[in-house]
Amino acid sequence: MSAPPDSTPAPPFAQTPQFWVLMVNAVGLGVFGAVAALLFMGLIGLGDNWYTASDPGWFGGQWWWVGVTAAAGVVVGLLRRWTHLPAKIPSLIDDLQHGHVDRRSVPGIVAVSAASLIGGASLGPEQALGSMGGGAAEWVSQRRRLTDEDSKVNTHAGFAGAYGGLFSSTVIVVMLILEVARPGGQRMAKTLAATIVSSSVSFAIYFIVAGSFFLDAYQVPAYTFKDWQLLAGIGLGLFAAVVVTLLATVMKLAAGMFGRLKVPAVVRSVIGGLAFGVVGVILPLTMFTGSDQLKTVLETGGTLGAGFLAALVVAKILTFAISEASGFVGGPIFPTLFIGGTAGVLVHQIIPGVPLGLAFTCLLAAVPGAMISAPFALVLLAAFMTQLGALETAPVLIAVITAFLAMESVKYVITTRRRTSPSTNRATG
């Protein structure tokens, strides 16, 4: 008579050796991420000191800046060639969603991103930092022969370690990764634990050395919460969706235009550097990541005028699109924070009855929140950056969700039309 099959249930994943391997990895990736972020942010902080916008108004820049941005284009083009960086690299969002980073591309991404940010491109540092953290996690996963599921958890822990110090909040980092990556099943719990550990270790080290980066970055005027501001959040969210639609359109046009250029990659990046350099001379606040420049917009927005602010929003969209399309490398979060925050100041200029703090914070969160499909993380980020109270956060959440749903509905309509169009049916028939 054969023995009955073993019916002992599997132990909870937290009581397995594999889980604790992931936790140990998370600690190491947190340490690595903090050190990498400190070195990278220190490098670009030293390298971009050639830029001084003493006059934020029209033609406040210096024409010699164009020479610097064109030279940055040469360096970017050569670095891409020397590091064999592909013409098209996965975006930060793609890497998070797939839980995978191509380790072979990491040196090129880091080098080109550093040159891009020092050269004044309208991009953020999060692409390079995420690549370093994710690439280190991929190396660890391969060495430890982790399963496919645990490798993805490890990669997300690497991202969390890279961002823990930069975003100055474990909660924001964990929420951002979970919203973009959307892990399911048991991997969700593993990812939650690993990213909390990794980002906490990273933040602790980063804070001791450099302090907080984002916390209380923008001082908005206090205002009294009123019921009507909840409805205003819907209107501000719809306006954010319009801004994001414009941004997506310009990015697509810029990518198509630079893609059709039959010139070497170095020439393409030089053209891009010349373009955003000229725009920077005309509107100097469009240069670089936009983090420090947004403080200037917030402090002097009342004197700049609605026309200038509108031009600034459009120009930043243009320089961001050109930077990405011409071969410069960087992330989308910082530039879209600038675009959103400036759009909020513009709304206050046009409709003074909408408090500056309300308009600024709603658009600051709604534009990037809809752009990268991470609404709750951006609500938290905006609240931490402006130190809003609990009541004042409600319209911000409504604005972000409105913008997010509006953009998702647009994507749904476009996808549906493509599926049902006669040309698509003939092509697939």
Write up what this structure looks like:
This protein has 429 residues and is an all-alpha fold. Helices cover 72% and strands 0% of the residues. It is built from 17 helices and no strands. Helix 5 runs antiparallel to helix 6 and helix 14 runs antiparallel to helix 15. It is globular. The relative contact order is 0.14. The model has no long low-confidence stretch (mean pLDDT 89).
| Overall 3D form | globular
Number of strands: 0
How many angstroms does the end-to-end distance come to? Answer: 58 Å
List the helices and strands in order. HHHHHHHHHHHHHHHHH
* Rg computed from alpha carbons, rounded to a whole number of angstroms: 22 Å
Summarize the structure.
Helices cover 72% and strands 0% of the residues.
